[in-house]
TrEMBL record:
<dbReference type="GO" id="GO:0006955">
    <property type="term" value="P:immune response"/>
</dbReference>
<dbReference type="GO" id="GO:0048007">
    <property type="term" value="P:antigen processing and presentation, exogenous lipid antigen via MHC class Ib"/>
</dbReference>
<dbReference type="GO" id="GO:0030883">
    <property type="term" value="F:endogenous lipid antigen binding"/>
</dbReference>
<dbReference type="GO" id="GO:0071723">
    <property type="term" value="F:lipopeptide binding"/>
</dbReference>
<dbReference type="InterPro" id="IPR050208">
    <property type="entry name" value="MHC_class-I_related"/>
</dbReference>
<dbReference type="GO" id="GO:0001916">
    <property type="term" value="P:positive regulation of T cell mediated cytotoxicity"/>
</dbReference>
<feature type="domain" description="MHC class I-like antigen recognition-like">
    <location>
        <begin position="1"/>
        <end position="198"/>
    </location>
</feature>
<dbReference type="GO" id="GO:0009897">
    <property type="term" value="C:external side of plasma membrane"/>
</dbReference>
<keyword id="KW-0325">Glycoprotein</keyword>
<dbReference type="GO" id="GO:0005615">
    <property type="term" value="C:extracellular space"/>
</dbReference>
<dbReference type="InterPro" id="IPR011161">
    <property type="entry name" value="MHC_I-like_Ag-recog"/>
</dbReference>
<dbReference type="InterPro" id="IPR037055">
    <property type="entry name" value="MHC_I-like_Ag-recog_sf"/>
</dbReference>
<protein>
    <recommendedName>
        <fullName>MHC class I-like antigen recognition-like domain-containing protein</fullName>
    </recommendedName>
</protein>
<dbReference type="Pfam" id="PF16497">
    <property type="entry name" value="MHC_I_3"/>
</dbReference>
<dbReference type="GO" id="GO:0030884">
    <property type="term" value="F:exogenous lipid antigen binding"/>
</dbReference>
<dbReference type="InterPro" id="IPR011162">
    <property type="entry name" value="MHC_I/II-like_Ag-recog"/>
</dbReference>
<feature type="signal peptide">
    <location>
        <begin position="1"/>
        <end position="18"/>
    </location>
</feature>
Length: 207
């Protein structure tokens, strides 16, 4: 945690009016949008974002994430961060399949779109917050916390059915919990650390 605070300190301190900056959380999030046109035709697009800045594009042919920034990448080469890549890969292929396979049971009507958002938020001096949500046709369907998927109050019986299925996989839930609570903040802080100089130029072009 001390390391993290140092990173944030280095990131925000130079400049006069940093009081407000300290209160601003920083997020890292991965977004997958799957569009289902009919039973046999589906497209997925993925991306990853550090706040408003896109850091990764997703190659939907190979399933690989491509880092878009010109920062040194040495910091990302540890074991945990490689596991993150594998986790992304299994989620990105697994999620759309679940919706494809349960189309009639969940009364999904073609064409439809499913969005998956996974990420975490760093709050200066506080514990980070992890989140994961799935939306159907732009409305929140289910969300994840405390290692369990929960139906959105407006999601009806479809949301309950989706939760029931997703919650059957305890191992996946544990992995995702670990990802959003442990790995994601680590990844976010290493991104900030590696990109510090570049980000400061972006935030304060005159400095
Ligand atoms: C599915 O949609 C695509 C694109 O609109 C179309 O080319 C294809 O023929 C459709 N397939 C079926 C089985 O309807
Ligand atoms: C991949 O994404 C592109 C748009 O970025 C889209 O045109 C293409 O159909 C997608 N392919 C698959 C297999 O989803
Ligand atoms: C999280 O889940 C555990 C086990 O199901 C439960 O004991 C605990 O009270 C939950 N925590 C919160 C904040 O709901």
């Amino acid at each position: 945690m001390l390391f993290l605070q140092l990173v944030l300190l280095v990131f925000f301190l130079p400049g006069g009016d940093s009081e407000d900056d300290f209160q601003e959380p920083i997020s890292f999030q991965i977004i997958l949008i799957s569009s289902f046109y009919n039973h046999s035709w589906m497209q997925s697009q993925g991306s990853a974002w550090l706040d408003e800045l896109q850091t990764h594009a997703w190659n939907n042919k190979t399933g690989a994430f491509i880092f878009l920034q010109r920062w040194p990448k040495g910091k990302f080469c540890n074991k945990e961060l490689m596991e993150v890549d594998e986790l992304f890969l299994s989620y990105y292929t697994g999620f759309p399949l679940k919706f494809h396979d349960h189309g009639s049971q969940w009364q999904l009507e073609y064409p439809f779109q499913v969005q998956l958002i996974i990420g975490c938020e760093l709050h200066f001096g506080e514990a980070s917050v992890g989140f994961m949500r799935i939306a159907y046709q732009g409305s929140e369907l289910v969300s994840f916390w405390n290692m369990t998927w929960w139906p959105s109050p407006t999601g009806g019986s479809r949301a309950q059915q989706v939760c029931r299925l997703l919650n059957q996989d305890h191992e996946d839930n544990e992995l995702m919990h670990m990802f959003i609570i442990d790995y994601c903040p680590l990844y976010l802080s290493s991104l900030l650390d590696a990109g510090k100089a570049d980000l400061q130029r972006k935030v304060r072009p005159e400095a």
